[in-house]
Amino acid sequence: MKLQRKMTLGVGFACVLAAGGAQASVTIGGTRVIYPLEQREVTVKLNNDSNGPSLVQVWMDEGNPDAKPGEIKVPFVITPPIFRMDAQKGQMLRVMINGGDALPKDRESLYWLNVLDIPPKTDTSVEGNSLQVAYRTRIKMFARPAGLAGNPEDAAAQLTWKIVASPDGKGQAVSATNPTPYHVSFSEIGVQSAGQTFKNEVGGMVAPNATQVFPISKMNAVAAGAMVRYSAINDFGGAIVGDAMLNQ
User: Fold this and answer.
1) Which of 9, 177, 228, 231 could be bridged to 211 by S-S, CB 3.0 to 4.6 A?
2) What's the rounded mean pLDDT across residues 15-27?
């Protein structure tokens, strides 16, 4: 999940938080959505874990977290797009493909599912400032064509790794090249060299047939025979731990 934050100040305070560390009342049943394109639709479960109702708005975007829902064009429709969720209740979202003929057939496509949780309006009769908080959760949705080569569980093990200069010009980094048709997401990447471990704990993702650079904190030199050890994320949000040779 990705964290964005916007705040508007007025007589009271209005705050919109998007994603991970914030505690939203409405939660998504999973950390990612897999959409097999041979299916007409997939469902996503939401739960309202609070003791009060929420107004919920859902939409999809192509990667720009600041894009306005009414201006985004994606080949998917979500129903219901806006609804009330009572306390301790659930809601099933239906995600349906609509005009997906232009999507690539030889690799996954990435979209983002947004869920905006708007709690009831605060009591304005109370003296002083009030805090009105809405939470936005944003997770990845992978649109997966039928018949792709290989297995998404095995994709991380097929990446090739090498030492490169860090993008900030300080020290070194690692690059990962993905020859598979699947996106590979990492929660953690480390380099084991001469008895030391250097880590990138932010993680990230490598798209199909692409290369991504990951900065490694405090790594200025790498000994021969160094290894990359990673924790990738599978379709169910679980960890796939592995290691690979690091080319110099």
Assistant:
1) 177
2) 65
Confidence tier at 18 by pLDDT (50, 70, 90) = low
Residue-level pLDDT at 15? 53
Is it the case that residue 121 has pLDDT exceeding 90?
no
d(CA 66, CA 77): 19
State the DSSP code for 31: S
Q: Is 189 exposed, middle or buried (0-12, 13-18, 19+ CB in 10 A)?
A: buried
Q: Which residue has the tokens 């599978």?
A: 234
Q: How far is CA 214 from CA 19, 32, 56, 186, in A?
A: 22, 22, 35, 10
Determine how many CB atoms are found less than 10 A away from the CB of residue 149: 9
CB atoms within 10 A of CB 191: 25
Mean pLDDT of the chain: 87
Contact 1, 138 (CB under 8 A): yes
Q: With helix as H, strand as E and coil as C, how does 196-245 read?
A: EEEEECCCEEECCCEEEEEECCCCCCCCCCCEEEEEEECCCCCEEEEEEE
Q: Is residue 234 within 8 Å of residue 153, measured between CB atoms?
A: yes
Regarding beta strands 239-247 and 160-165, do their DSSP bridges make them parallel or antiparallel, or are they unpaired?
A: parallel
Q: Is 153 helix (H, G, I), strand (E, B) or coil?
A: helix
The rounded distance, in Å, linking the Cα atoms of 240 and 232 is: 5
State both tokens at 191.
Answer: 């380099």
Q: What is the pLDDT of residue 1?
A: 39
Quick check: 216 pLDDT over 50? yes
